[in-house]
Amino acid sequence: MKNIAALWLLLLLAGACTSPTGTTRTERDSIAERQEQLRVLPGSDLYKMGISRRAVSLRDTYYEAVIRFDVVHKDDKVESRKFSFDDKGNLTNINYYDDDGDLDLREIYQYNETGKLWRINQFYGDGELRTRTTCHYDQNGVMDYATRRDEDGDFEARMLYKYNEQGRVSQMSVVDDDGDLDIRYTYHYDPQGNLIRKNEYDDDGDLDETRTWYYTMDESGNWTSCIEYVDGEPYRVVIRSATLPDPVGALPAPE
Length: 255
Known about the structure:
By secondary structure, the chain is mainly β. It folds into two domains: 2-34, no CATH class; 44-243, Beta Barrel (Lipocalin), CATH 2.40.128.720. It has three helices and 14 strands. Strands 1-2-3-4-5-6-7-8-9-10-11-12-13-14 form a 14-stranded antiparallel barrel. A hairpin with a 4-residue loop joins strand 7 and strand 8. It starts with a helix and ends in a 12-residue tail after the last strand. Residues 1-21, 27-31 and 248-255 have low confidence and may be disordered.
């Protein structure tokens, strides 16, 4: 019995041997596990949003933009949005809050058995259904269009999608029930996948509006704030905060 106990003690001590870098094997395993936990899966919504580390949720708070002494500053709060994600980095819901923090709208994202986005249900703050959007995929498994209906099931719009080489939406055309164009958007991204320009065209193909975004990044390359411009004029200042997953196998704090 003593020999068995001694063997287990040796195994435990071996597992806690310090490496030449000053970290124990347990610590290295914990760090590796933490890095894997924070890794963003290619093709996930976090990946498409240009996020370099996994997050449980993101919150974007919007403020009016004002210019003081030739510098853009945030002014009154306008709204906020909270994006929640599953453990694969895909959206589960988006909550829209007004300037007082009251829930205005909620979008619930549903996925099919293959893990593809199937339906988006949008509700008012009181829980009443507002719209229901159903996604359609082509033979290659790429979403080619989505159809939005109102609370009574009546047709509202159909969105047709085109993509860039990175799999992000490069164009969305909104058509009516006859297939006639209502509005078209084009999207442009920086190398990290952050949206930097959106052009809006009317049904005649004329440019109606251009929105651009300029970001402030943290050390990991994730943006923490941005300024949104409409036709070259500052429109909104957005502040982003992130909730990361709880640490896995975290070591106790040193005494």
